[in-house]
Amino acid sequence: MVKAATGALLSTLEIDRRSRVPIYRQIEDFLRQMILNGSLLPSQKLPSTRELALELGVSRITIKSVYEQLISEGYVQGKTGAGTFVSEGLDGETPVVPSIDLTEKEYLFGNFSKTAEHISFSQAIARYGSILPFRPGVPALDKFPIKRWNKYVSRATKSDITNFSYGDLLGSKKLRASIAHHLADSRGMQVDPEQILITSGAQQAFVLISYVLMNKNDTVWYENPGHIAGRDVMRIVGGDVSPVPIDGEGLDLPYAIQNFSIPKLIFTTPSHQQPLGITMSLQRRLALLKYAHEKASWIIEDDYDSEFRYRGRPLPALSALDKVGRVLYVGTFSKSLFPSVRIGYVVVPEILMDAFAKMRNIFGQTSSAITEEALSNFMDDGAFAEHIRKMRRLYRDRRDILLNALQENCSNILIPQQTDAGMHILADIKNGISDRLAHLELLKSGIDSLPLSIYYEGPAERQALVLGFSGVQKKVIPELVSKMGSVLNCLKTVN
Ligand SMILES: Cc1ncc(COP(=O)(O)O)c(C=O)c1O
């Protein structure tokens, strides 16, 4: 015979009267938990509604509605004239939720898949919400022509009711055509719009490429240091990721050939190596294409920020030299517009298109048809090109101000690297201070540079800060850099 639940048993229930969770919900949750973790046993009698109401200082109606809810969910049963009892049917089936607190490690390794275990160690950091100054890769959101953009979005909501439905799996035809024009004008690429698949940012393109083209244990050559989130994808999908060093010409092809097996995929950022900023030489580009052709490897060209080159014209993409179709060109609007637009694309040989579309159907289906139409019109009207031109000038100025300020305030502690492209500079740290320590200390002062070492697989060759300049207003740069100098100089004396 199971004993009736006494007041003592329920005395651990503390009602939080200031909580936004209604009182009846707090009581319901508590009773459910007691039943699931075995504190209340099958057939055990619950206190009468009157008793419990008195004990908890709530109305009887509240307790009645709690019991009715639990009866309807099957946790308890009401027996006319006898009271309310924990359901018998739960006997033996109740998953016993351990009440002891698991350590984080036990929790991770006890419950998660191998994939999730792996990803828990990822160094990739999402940049959501407000962003502290100098965080790399952040565009000048303060200068985005929001009103103008909103007109395009508003028009897209009125032009066609089907924009409110699921979009085309490949992305809207119109946007794909706008992107093909853009690639011809600015990247020297002759691409049929049929080869363009719209994705939710470059990151989704990496996921799709990996799932469509890679098998478990396939070799992937990946730039080292390199883009962290892309590397995580290749590894999660089962790739044997081989870290290829960067030399003065870009991805060190001779090193990779000598040290690693023939790759299925080669991940590279030839226009502006992420994070070192090197542009791949023409010789290296040709050699890489030749190698990929001979070995039937696929090259992923991540062209994430090539719009921003401050001297001369942007170099044509690696893909523009590819005559045999071994390059999968990935572009994104996260840098050229704003990250939350969540639109990127991948240019794939037509023969693979169907497989990519089917894979995309599984991974998030389509982007917003409204955003696709707005973006397409924004591009076709020249607003996109105009915005890029403005940002190029702005970013160049922001870069110059940052370099001057570093020279004035930090020359004893940082050696900034000159750069003619992109949205960040590297600044090597003198005197052996670790970049991770510098990053953490600067973060306390509201400065969010990233340590170069997190981009490395294995030990870092350099200790440097990656300083994004594109998202920091000119007027605040000198003051921030002066603060940076004080923080870093204190570290110097501590070491
Ligand atoms: C090297 C590189 N590639 C691509 C991306 C863009 O990713 P997404 O388009 O998914 O925002 C980033 C963003 O930080 C990046 O640093």
* Shape annotation: globular
Q: Judging by the overall fold, what is the CATH architecture of the largest domain?
A: 3-Layer(aba) Sandwich
Classify the helix fraction into a percent range: 40-55%
- The CATH topology of the largest domain, please? Aspartate Aminotransferase, domain 2
Describe it for me?
Residues 95-100 have low confidence and may be disordered. The strands form 3 sheets. An 8-stranded mixed β-sheet has the order 3-10-9-8-7-4-5-6, sandwiched between helices. A 4-stranded antiparallel β-sheet has the order 11-12-14-13, with helices on one face. α2 packs across α4 and α3 (49-56) crosses α4 (60-73). The protein is α/β, with parallel strands linked by helices and 495 residues long. The protein has helices at residues 7-10, 23-36, 49-56, 60-73, 104-111, 114-119, 146-159, 173-187, 201-213, 228-236, 253-259, 282-295, 350-362, 369-380, 383-410, 435-444, 477-494; strands spanning 76-79, 83-86, 196-199, 219-224, 240-247, 250-251, 265-268, 298-302, 327-332, 344-347, 414-416, 424-429, 450-451, 464-468. The chain contains 17 helices and 14 strands. Helix content is 42%, strand content 13%. Residues 137, 201-203, 227, 269, 274, 302, 304, 332, 334, 339, 344 line the site of pyridoxal-5'-phosphate (PLP). Pyridoxal-5'-phosphate (PLP) binds at residues 137, 201-203, 227, 269, 274, 302, 304, 332, 334, 339, 344.
